Every structure is written in C-alpha cells, then in structure tokens.
Inverse folding.
C-alpha cells in the first residue's frame, strides 16, 4: 500500500493529469484526487475537503496557476502549491516563486514531482510543529501575564487588608487601654461608650475576617451551604440594626412581606445583605435614603438594595464581582478591601442564584440578587 496523498489537480488537460497521477503512483503515493480548471470548481473543491497538495498547470484557457495560487492565499490555506508547465522560462519561474509557489516543474521532467512533494509535506509538518510551539509559547506568556497581574493584585490586597485590619484594631486597643488605665476617673457612661466603640470595631474586624474566610473557602471549592427556612424580613432587619450601630444611623426603607421565607443558609444570607447594605451606606451621603426590597418572581426570590449614592459607570460594573476589585472614587473617601461583592457573588451562586448591579455614575446603584424558591421554600412561603 502506498502513502496516502490527497491531491488537487488544477489542470485543463485530462491526459496531463493522468501522467501526473501515474508519476505519483510510481513514486509510491496512493492518491485521492480531483481535477479542476476553473476558479469556481477549485473553490468548491477547497470547501469540500482538505488537500495535502495542489499541483497546478501554469496556463489554462479559463484560469491560470497564479490565479489558483492567489485563491488559496485569499483563503489563508496552508497547502503546498506546485506549478507545472509545458515550458517554464526562468522569468515565469521567478514570478511563480515570488507569488508564493512552493516549486515549479516542467511537464517533461515529472520525476522531480515526487521528491518536491515529499520535501513540501515535510516542511509543512515542521511549520505545523513550529506553529504549535509558538502558540504554546504565546499561551504561556498570556498565563504569565495573568499570574503577574494576580500576584500584583494579591500584594495590593494584602497591603489593603492589613491596613483595614489595623484601623479597627487601633481603636479597640485605644478604647480598652483607656478603660483599663483610667477606670477610676471615668463615669459609667464613658466606660460604656468606650466599650461600645471597641465592640463596634471588633465587629468590623470580624466582618473582614469572615469575608476573607468565605473567599478562601470559595476559592478552594469548600463552600458548604446549610439551608433552612429563613424569614427574609428578619434577616434584613438584623442587617439594618447592625448598620445603625454606626455613628451616623441611616434611614432604610424595607419593603418586604413579613411572611416571605426562603430556603437558604441563614448566616450566608445575612452576610450577603450586610455586605450590600454596608456598601449602600458607604457609597452614599448620610442624608439619603436606602431601600431594601424583596419580590417573588416566578420560581425566584428577588432581593434588591438601592441607594442614591455615587453610582458606578457601566464600563466598570463588570469587574466589581471579581476578587480584590475596588474603584477609585474622588467623591467619597470610603475604605474597604474589595472583598464584599466577590463574597456576595460566591454565596449567591452557591445558593443557585445570581447577582448583578444596575447603576449609573452619579445616579445611585441597585444591587440585585436572586435565590431560587425550591419546592420546600415555596411551601413555606405564604
Ligand atoms: P469594598 O467596598 O470593601 O471596597 P466591595 O467588594 O464591597 O469592596 O465593593 C467593590 C467596589 O465596588 C467598591 O470599592 C466600590 O468602588 C464599588 N461599590 C460597591 N458597592 C457600591 C455602591 N453601592 N455604590 C457605588 N459603588 C459601589
């Protein structure tokens, strides 16, 4: 059995094509072939199947070797292209090679065809390997760029988190130190106030650590959801109470039927709403209203947190739910770690829901997420 070879012959003379095929058989090829001699037939032949080699006559009544060559170049096909001709002047040969032909062979010297094809197929193989290697190299370079970027983000993040942990810790240490060293001089009210400050800051610390832990679990695919029936309004009210332990309380309008329950992980749902509410307060002015609304939509529960704050330009919205992403804001000097939203996303998705933002710069933002109402959840929802 010969070596298989799919050869597209661009040749108006059937006899010349037969001679060519005979020569290929003689040198050990088992060919499958098609003979074409117009541009449209060549086009269809190229569409129909893959070819290992094209052997084309130089001049034909309706077509030419150079036109055939330019056709495969337009299609960006890497198929070795050999030109044959009754006679080839040096000038024609140079023109053909310059146009990109792999070789040119006179019809009275067809014995050169076998070695020429062998060489071209070999070269194509090498080209393919080289392309594979350089593609792999490009991919590694891309990966390296991404890794460098992630590494840089992690470095920035470690700096940010350390700073964010340090601030409440400084307040806690200061307050407790005052209580310890000046207890005799301080009134009960002052002591209560200082301990209250320490407690509030300890809660902030605990929130940052909880978010960190959730992200670490999610990254390691170890996020486990413990579902139970949760009355949604209670969770929102707890979040609002927590928010309003801050120095400047906020007016939060809750629109949620008190009977709505959903099957969810209570602690995680609390964390999602805490994070969104904290952000709504952080990125809006103290005098403005915040709304939390809950709606049942088909098989899902839709929960939204709306503020009238600084808003987010649409081109930046996509990256908010990625780890460590914070946006620069000239208007509001809010501190943060860039952890809240990515944790929200991971927790919402772990429940089978999704989260997104609707916002415009300067027009406030609404963060929305859905939770599926499972049969169990639906049953408990009145
Ligand atoms: P953090 O608030 O700790 O920076 P988040 O992951 O909670 O991290 O939020 C990421 C970024 O998204 C914030 O830095 C802020 O730029 C933007 N953002 C989040 N919530 C709001 C909001 N309600 N209004 C405007 N920008 C917001």
């Amino acid at each position: 059995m010969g070596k298989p070879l799919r050869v597209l012959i661009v040749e108006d003379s059937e006899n010349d094509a037969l001679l060519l095929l005979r020569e290929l058989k003689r040198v050990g090829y088992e060919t499958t072939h098609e003979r074409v001699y117009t541009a449209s037939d060549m086009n269809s032949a190229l569409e129909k199947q893959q070819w290992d080699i094209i052997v084309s006559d130089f001049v034909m009544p309706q077509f030419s070797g150079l036109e055939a060559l330019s056709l495969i170049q337009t299609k960006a096909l890497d198929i070795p292209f050999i030109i044959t001709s009754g006679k080839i002047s040096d000038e024609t040969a140079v023109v053909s090679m310059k146009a990109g032909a792999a070789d040119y062979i006179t019809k009275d010297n067809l014995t050169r065809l076998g070695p020429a094809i062998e060489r071209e197929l070999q070269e194509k193989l090498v080209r393919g390997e080289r392309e594979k290697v350089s593609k792999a190299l490009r991919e590694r370079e891309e990966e390296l760029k991404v890794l460098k970027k992630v590494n840089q983000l992690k470095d920035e993040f470690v700096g940010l988190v350390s700073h964010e942990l340090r601030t409440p810790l400084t307040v806690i240490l200061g307050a407790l130190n005052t209580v310890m060293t000046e207890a005799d001089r301080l009134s009960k009210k002052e002591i209560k106030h200082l301990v209250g400050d320490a407690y509030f800051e300890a809660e902030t610390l605990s929130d940052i650590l909880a978010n960190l832990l959730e992200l670490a679990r999610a990254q390691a695919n170890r996020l486990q959801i413990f579902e139970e029936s949760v009355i949604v309004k209670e969770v929102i009210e707890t979040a609002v109470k927590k928010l309003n332990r801050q120095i400047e309380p906020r007016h939060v309008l809750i629109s949620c039927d008190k009977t709505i329950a959903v099957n969810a992980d209570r602690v995680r749902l609390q964390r999602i709403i805490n994070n969104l509410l904290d952000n709504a307060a952080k990125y809006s002015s103290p005098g403005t209203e915040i709304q939390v609304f809950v709606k049942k939509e088909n098989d899902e529960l839709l929960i939204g947190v709306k503020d009238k704050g600084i808003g987010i330009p649409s081109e930046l919205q996509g990256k908010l739910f990625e780890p460590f992403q914070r946006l620069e804001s000239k208007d509001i000097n809010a501190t943060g770690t860039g952890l809240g939203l990515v944790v929200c996303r991971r927790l919402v998705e772990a429940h089978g829901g999704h989260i997104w933002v609707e916002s415009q710069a300067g027009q406030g933002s609404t963060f929305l997420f859905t939770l599926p109402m499972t049969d169990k959840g639906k049953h408990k929802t009145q």
